[in-house]
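Could you join me in thinking about how sequence relates to backbone shape in a protein? We need material for that, and I hope you will provide a protein of your own picking. Label the sequence line and the structure token line clearly, so we can match residues to local backbone shapes. Would you write everything just below, so we can both look at the same thing?
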Amino acid sequence: MRTSSSSPPGPIETGTFIGRNDFVFTWDEANLDEIGWRKLGEMLRLVWKKVPSLEEESDVRKEQTGDEGMTAIVGLAAYEAAPETETSKEAAPKPARKKKRARAKGAKRTKGKGAK
């Protein structure tokens, strides 16, 4: 999204990354067998092959309307996840512990709601 610190600001810095309410950026894990994996690849390739025709359609409309359009970044990915190892389990983030509430200086400790 940004190539180097000397390059112009990228979509995150300028706000265009989430600037539209119809933007799409999503991912999830899917536990697939070989057939499911192949079907997923076919679906993604079909979407990818449609992008040039969307550009051509847009070019025609832009010519008719004088609209400049916008540059959209399109990316698709599907890859096999790395196997989980004991090391990766240990490195996984631990759930956040509940923070203790700070008491005002000199305040007395109570034993729960409504305790006196």
In short: DSSP finds three helices and no strands in the chain. The chain has a mean pLDDT of 79. Residues 27-81 form one domain. Helices lie at 11-14, 34-65, 86-91.
